[in-house]
Amino acid sequence: MTTPALSITDLRKSFGPAKIIQGVNLEIEKGERHAIIGPNGAGKSTLFNLISGGYHPTSGSIRLNGTEIGGTKPYLINRMGLSRSFQVSNIFANMSVRENVRCGVLYSMGYGYSFWRNVGNLKEVQRKTAEILEKVDLLDKANLPAALLPYADQRTLEIAITIAGGAEVILLDEPTAGMSHSETERAVALIKQATEGKTLVIVEHDMGVVFNMADRISVLVYGEIIATGAPSEIRGDPRVREAYLGDEADALENGDAA
């Protein structure tokens, strides 16, 4: 039996009297593309913060490839093979696009900070950086300051930084937020290509993106997962329709969503 990439058992998180995550149980298999959806305030970002080490669980277990990571510092979780992006672009604005991605590549290849090392001489680092930039269609903008990129390209750059560390489990928090329809289509194609063979977990409000990309979907409502299943199962689940999807499920069935 294969060990899941992520295994979450009876996970709970409270802030004082406020119970935000209330007994989440979830297993995500290696190589799976898994979406977590739910209304605003459902606890999606809190769940991501718990998995990636931003918050300590009140109780429960989070296991990455069989190893307990609940309460572990984020940088240690990253070194164990899990990386995440954020809702708000988190890039080095004054560095070039290439330099942003190269930072992640350096650490993934075991190069720590060293003021005397000329990174330009590290041919394997340069090769891998260029490979990632080409994969996300940013190679032609590699020398631009990141701050000058259009918003959609900044989001793409953050995805590139996220995968640059070589993590096998990738968490993307609303990767297409604020994008136009055409930008969203391009982003979905790039995410699929860039995360091929990896385990992908996304939080996303655009149901067109979710149903287009996910192998399985979990619906989080008021800190509890009310359903997990294939897109077709989630689309037809009466509990999900009542709690979250509503008319959007009908639009998806009729092909009206992207």
TrEMBL record:
InterPro entries: AAA+_ATPase, ABC_AA/LPS_Transport, ABC_transporter-like_ATP-bd, BCA_ABC_TP_C, P-loop_NTPase. GO terms for cellular component: plasma membrane. It comes from the Bacteria. Keywords: ATP-binding, Nucleotide-binding, Transport. GO terms for molecular function: ATP binding; ATP hydrolysis activity. Residues 6-247 form the ABC transporter domain. Gene3D superfamilies: P-loop containing nucleotide triphosphate hydrolases. This is ABC transporter ATP-binding protein. It comes from Thalassobius vesicularis.
